[in-house]
Design a protein that fits this description.
Largest sheet of chain B: 5 strands, mixed
Distance between the termini of chain B: 39 Å
Structural class of chain A: mainly beta
Distance between the termini of chain A: 32 Å
Shape of chain B: globular
Strand content of chain B: over 45%
Number of helices of chain B: 0
Number of helices of chain A: 0
Largest interface: A-B, 27 and 19 residues
Order of helices and strands of chain A: EEEEEEEEEEE
Helix content of chain B: under 10%
Oligomer: heterodimer
Number of strands of chain B: 9
Shape of chain A: globular
Number of strands of chain A: 11
């Protein structure tokens, strides 16, 4: 099983719909992140959480919300999806100071039509 | 906010050594330098991390000069499967939020 699992892997949704992307991890890491990647570009941080009671906005949080249900689970919601939210979404985890960087999931490809 | 600058793309051939240099002029005292590899439609994968001088693991080496304003990722004897995008990042220790730039697209040719 993957250390960081994202569901669904692919999703097509309509403009205005609410959609949730889920992330779960077995790394035991406290820190979790959501990134988005547009074609040919680097990753941009949406939200991050350093523990269950901690939620922080990243550089592009508008139009998104998150929920940290447990140490191992971090969900990203699009309250009312719009076409320019079509992108590849990645969840990641890390443990401060362990020297091994972030562990990323395989991504969710979201298309808003 | 420390930023990094790296070449947009590089071509190489199988069996050659690939060196990618990244500049990070505004790196802070507590920041580490980390490199990731990303294949199409996959999440980035951690390659190596360093603070100063040289770090080597089974995949790559990382060279960091004394002023730490740049770093060089060295991939020895690349193969076709090393074709990917390589990201250089500075780990902002205060916030621990990775900021990704555009990366370097490395194409390994037969």
């Amino acid at each position: 099983d993957a250390d960081v699992t994202q569901t669904p892997r692919n999703r097509i949704t309509k403009t205005g719909k609410r959609i949730m992307l889920e992330c779960s991890q077995t790394k035991g890491h406290d820190r979790m992140y959501w990134y988005r990647q547009d074609p040919g570009l680097g990753l941009r941080l949406i939200y991050y959480s350093f523990d269950v009671k901690d939620i922080n906005k990243g550089e592009i949080s508008d139009g998104y919300s998150v929920s940290r249900q447990a140490q191992a689970k971090f969900s990203l919601s699009l309250e009312s999806a719009i076409p320019n939210q079509t992108a590849l979404y990645f969840c990641a985890t890390s443990e401060a100071g362990d020297g091994y960087g972030y562990t990323f999931g395989s991504g969710t490809r979201l298309t808003v039509v | 906010l420390a930023k990094t600058t790296q070449p947009i793309s590089m071509d190489s051939y199988e069996g050659q050594e690939v060196n990618i240099t990244c500049s990070h002029n505004n790196i802070a005292t507590n920041d580490y330098i980390t490199w990731y590899q990303q294949f199409p439609s996959q999440g980035p994968r951690f390659i190596i991390q360093g603070y100063k001088t040289k770090v080597t693991n089974e995949v790559a080496s990382l060279f960091i000069p004394a002023d730490r304003k740049s770093s060089t990722l060295s991939l020895p004897r690349v193969s076709l499967s090393d074709t990917a995008v390589y990201y250089c990042l500075v780990d902002e220790a205060a916030g621990n939020k990775l900021t990704f730039g555009g990366g370097t697209r490395v194409l390994v040719k037969p």
